[in-house]
């Protein structure tokens, strides 16, 4: 059931003449201070021009009493200063003053400009300026209401005294309508541009977040094999302990059985977790079947890159062959080198890349540096997906290491990763 008309009409009128937004100054978003002050300077210049002209021509050309003419000149001109922030309010002040001015103009006063009625020339220009500013700020229904009121007032005044006007009021109706339409079009265009910019910002943030989540999911799927291998070893050792250790007490054998059962349960939970992390395009068989790569396969990776036409120099420390690396560190080092070389191929094709992997007692150091390309070259990609550096950071964070990336002073790019064998946050559990 619709509300009573007595309640609907006032609410509709309030909505119709309610400003569409906050009182933001015209050009208030401009970077240069002069541009931000320019609308105030223009408004001040118009007031300085219209106020004395109106106060002069109303008594001399239209027979208005001098004091009343001065009051009307102030009320009709001063709202232009308000219009910089609140054009609808400025119009709501100036337009009734223009109507009052038309009503008090003497019909038998024969000044040279008496036929320019009901709006004298300063009021015509002032109304056109206000209608343009209203069009730049307000909603289409508000613009329609303003145009209807201006048109109705001009028609009613000229109809009440036919033959007095030379049709100049139609200038406000026609040209004012066109100016409001132009202002409305500019407002919609500006609003669409702002909305598009905001959407692009949101999309970029969502893209970065999605990239990070995809990298974390991919790393989790890869580490599943590493952790699953250790859990399988624990299960086998616990199950075989009663057969490998002679005279094992029954309590210890029962404890080993509990450990084996817990390990098998953990493996089952990990497989279910992997099913949640698996991408939609993954096969029903689970994750990848091939063994996870490590530092031992970096040589093959470099050879494949060289065969593709990218010069690469590889340096592997002799100490890498003396002892096996932790699997998480081993896998992370390979993936970092893989991503770094892929970035060189994409962004600096033909540039020499130097890969160095060394180890000490505390961890592994991975360094990939590419020189600037000789001569002009065309990158295969001008803007990447962001997966490469994001993946490197996540892998380094996973093992508690550090990553340093960035351009070199003379050109080229550097990727340096430090992968500790024991993360610092695991060395001191109490910290």
UniProtKB/TrEMBL annotation:
- The record's EC number reads 2.7.13.3
> Is Transcription regulation given among the entry's keywords?
no
What residues does the Histidine kinase/HSP90-like ATPase domain cover? Answer: 332-421
For this chain, one GO molecular function annotation is: kinase activity
InterPro entries (UniProt xref): HATPase_C_sf, HATPase_dom, Sensor_HK_TwoCompSys, Sig_transdc_His_kin_sub3_dim/P
Instruction: Supply the PANTHER family for this chain.
Output: NITRATE/NITRITE SENSOR PROTEIN NARX-RELATED (PTHR24421), NITRATE_NITRITE SENSOR PROTEIN NARQ (PTHR24421:SF10)
**Protein name listed in UniProt:** histidine kinase
Q: Report the source organism.
A: Streptomyces luteireticuli
